Amino acid sequence: MDLRLPSKVLEHILSFVDSNEDRNSVSLVCKSWFETERRTRKRVFVRNCYAVTPEAVARRFPETRSLTLKGKPHFADYNLVPDGWGGYAWPWIEAMAAKCPSLDELRLKRMVVTDECLEKIAASFKDFKVLVLTSCEGFSTDGLAAIAVACSNLRELELRECIVEDLGGDWLSYFPETLTSLVSLDFSCLDSEVKLSDLERLVSRSPNLKSLKLNRAVSLDALGSLLRLAPQLVELGTGSFSDKLDQEAVSKLSQAFSEMKELKSLSGLWDVLPEYIPLLYSVCPGLTSLNLSYATVQMPDLVELLTRCSNLQKLWVMDLIEDKGLEVVASSCKELRELRVFPSGAEGLNDTNVAMTEQGLVSVSEGCPNLESVLYFCVQFTNAAMVTIARNRPNLTCFRLCVMEPFSPDHKTQQPLDEGFKAIVERCKDLQRLSVSGLLTNKAFEYIGTHGKKLRMLSIAFAGDSDLMLHHLLSGCESLNKLEIRDCPFGDTALLENAAKLETMRSLWMSSCCVSFGACKLLSQKMPKLNVEVIDEHPLETRPDSSPVERIYIYRTLAGPRLDMPEFVWTTQKNPEIGVSHLAIK
Amino acid sequence: MDEFVNLKATELRLGLPGRDNVCEDGERVSCNSNSNKRALQVDAENELKTETSLLESKVQIVGWPPVRSYRKNNIQTKKNESDHESQGIYVKVSMDGAPYLRKIDLSCYKGYSDLLKALETMFKFSVGGEYSERDGYKGSDFVPTYEDRDGDWMLIGDVPWDVLMGFCYLLQDVLCSCKRLRIMKGSEAKCLGSCV
C-alpha cells in the first residue's frame, strides 16, 4: 500500500510552514518532499551571495516571490574592504529574471547595484512590489526613475544609507499618476531636492502610505503640508528641521503633528534647532521608535523630549545625551528594548566634546527591564559596570561595546576588561551578538569560549595576546556563525587547528592580524568547501610564505571560487601560480 | 626563521603606530610588557601636556571607531554647512586643577554667554561674577581666559565675539587668534580684578 502523502496534500500542509528553518528540515526528509517543498517556497534568504550560485537558487525555487541577499562582509561598513571587492547584484537579477518571473520583492544589503540592475528589475518582473536597498552603492537616481516609471504596483521603495549618484530630484516625478499602491517610501539618503508638488501629489494619492522618510532637502515648511496630507503615517523620517519659520507656520506644523495619531516611529530630525523640539511633544507618548542619531541637540533638549516618550522601545541617539540624559531615559522609558549611542565627534578619537562613560549604560540597565540590545560608544568603562549590567540584564541578546580608545583598561583599576566581559557572557545566556573593545587579554576570550554558547556573531578589534584567543573562540563558541577580527596579533596556528570549524560558520574576517600567506594556502588546500580569499593590495607572488597578509575573508560555499574577483583578491584557484608550499606551519 | 628576520625591514607593519613586535613568530605578546600601550593612557598630571599632544598627533586608524561612513559623512556635512569650514575650530581648554584637558569647537557657540555656559557645564564650575569692561569678572573665583597669537593670556569678553571668531575663520588652526582657553582659578584670577 502506498503510504506516500499525495503531493497536493503536502503542498497544502506546507503552505502553513513559514519558517525557512523548518522548510529546510522538510526538504531533507526524502526526494518527493524536497521537490514539493522547493516548488512551494516563497521567500529565499541568501545571507552570503557567494555561498551559492544565482542559477542554483533560481532553479531550485522557481516560485519564489521574495529574495533577500547580502553581499560584502560587515567590516565593509568601516572601509576595511577595498572598492571593487565584489557583491554584484547583477548575476542574481539576471538569473531571477530568467527563472522566477513571480519575484516581487528584492532586499539587498551591502551589494553593488547598478542602474542596469534597476532597469532590469523594472523590465522583468511584472508585478514588482518591494525594493529595499541597505548600504548599497553603484546606482544613480536614473535607476530609481526606471523603477518609478515601470512598477505600477510598487508598494515599497526604501533606500537605507545607500551611496547614490545623485543626478537631481527628477526621479520622483516619474511615479505615474496611476500609482496609488505606495505603502513605504524612503529616500532619506539622497541629497537633491525633489519637486514638492510631485511629492505632495504622490502622497495624496497613496491612501495606504504608512512610512515616509524624507531627505534632508525637504524643508520644515514642506513637512507641514506633507503631514497634513498623510496624517495616517506610522513611520516618519523628517527632512531638515532647522529652517526659520514664522509663528503661524510653527503653529500649523504643531497642529499637523498633533493630528498624527498613528505615528510610532520618528527619525531624520537633521540639524534640529532646540526651539523646534516642542513641536514633537504631541507625538512622543505614542512613539515606540526614535532615531535621534542625526539630531545634534544637547542633553537638556534631548531630555525634554525623552521624558515624554514613555512607550519607547527603540532609541538611537548620539553621545550628546551624556550619562545624565541616559539616567532620564532609565526613569522615563520603561519599555526600552534597544539602545544605540553613537559618537558625535568627527573622525578622531579625541574630537568628541562629550565624555560618555559607563554610568549612562548602567542606569539604563537598571531602569529598563526589557533592555536586550545595546550598541554603546563611550570613552571609558569599568569591569564593575559590566558586572552590574550583566546582573541587571541577563536577558541581553546583543551587546556591542565600543570604548573608543583602543587598549583602554578599566579606568578605575587599570585592569584589562576581561572580568567585565566574563560577567556578560556568563550571565546573559541568550547572548547572540557581542562586540568587545578596550584592553583585553586571552582570558577574556577563554571566558567567551567557555560561556558564549549561543553567540552567533562576534566582533573583535585590538585585543588578545596570542593564537590562544582565536583557539578559544573557534573551539568554544558552538553557535558561532560570523567572526570578524581586526588588528589582533595572531593567526596561523589557531586557524589551521580549527579549520573544520570554519565550515560550520558563514564567514570569518581577519584584517591586520598575523595570518601568514603560507597558512592561507594550506587552509585553502585542506578545505575545498571554503573560499579562502586573501585581500591584499600588494602583489603576493614574490612574498615568502611567512609574511603576513593584509586581510583574509573565509566563507563556506557551494559555488566554488567566484568568477568576479578583482586583482587584489587572491585565491589558490584564481592564482594557481602561487602554489602551495610544503613549508611546515607550527 | 632567518628568512623572516631579514625581511623585517621591508615587512608590512601591522598594529597601531608605536606598537612593535606585534607579529613575532610564536612569541606571546604580553599586554604588560608592551609599554607602548601605556603611552595611550593618561599618566602623571605633569605629563598631561605631552600626552595631549601625543594624542593629537596620533595617526587616524582606518575604520575606527567603527562608525559607518554614511553616518560619519552626515555629521561632517552638518558641520560643513553651519561652520563654513569642514573641521570646526577646535581649541584646547584647560582648567586649573583638572586632571586632563578638553577640546571644544568654538564655531558651535553663538556668543560669549553660550561659550561660558558650555564651559561651566563641561568643567562643573560657575563663573559667578558678571562681566564688565571695567572689572572683568568681578567677584568670581573662576576667570575664563584665552591665549592669543602673541602668547598672552587675555580675558574672555573684551573683544566682540564676531571679531574673535572672524579672526578664527580667517586664520584657522595654528594661526587662530584664539589658540587655547584656560580657566584660571583662585588667587591668580582675583589678581586680575585688582591690578587694573
TrEMBL record, chain A:
Family annotation (PANTHER family) = F-BOX/TPR REPEAT PROTEIN POF3, GRR1-LIKE PROTEIN 1
Task: Select a single GO molecular function from the record's annotations and give it.
Answer: auxin binding
Output the SUPFAM superfamilies linked to this UniProt entry: RNI-like
Matching entries from Pfam families are given as:
F-box_5 (PF18511), Transp_inhibit (PF18791)
Record-annotated F-box domain positions: 1-48
User: Subcellular localization, per the record?
Assistant: Nucleus
Q: Which UniProt keywords apply?
A: Auxin signaling pathway, Developmental protein, Nucleus, Ubl conjugation pathway
Instruction: Spell out the protein name for this chain.
Output: F-box domain-containing protein
Q: Which organism is it from?
A: Brassica carinata
Q: Which InterPro entries match?
A: COI1_F-box (IPR041567), F-box_dom (IPR001810), Leu-rich_rpt_Cys-con_subtyp (IPR006553), LRR_dom_sf (IPR032675), Transp_inhibit (IPR041101)
- Gene3D superfamilies per the record? 1.20.1280.50, Ribonuclease Inhibitor (3.80.10.10)
UniProtKB/TrEMBL annotation, chain B:
> Keywords of this protein's UniProt record, alphabetized?
Auxin signaling pathway, Nucleus, Repressor, Transcription, Transcription regulation
Location in or out of the cell: Nucleus
Pfam families named in the record: AUX_IAA (PF02309)
Taxonomically, the superkingdom here is: Eukaryota
Q: How does it assemble?
A: Homodimers and heterodimers.
Cross-referenced PANTHER family: AUXIN-RESPONSIVE PROTEIN IAA17, AUXIN-RESPONSIVE PROTEIN IAA3
For this entry, the protein name equals Auxin-responsive protein
- This protein's species is Brassica carinata
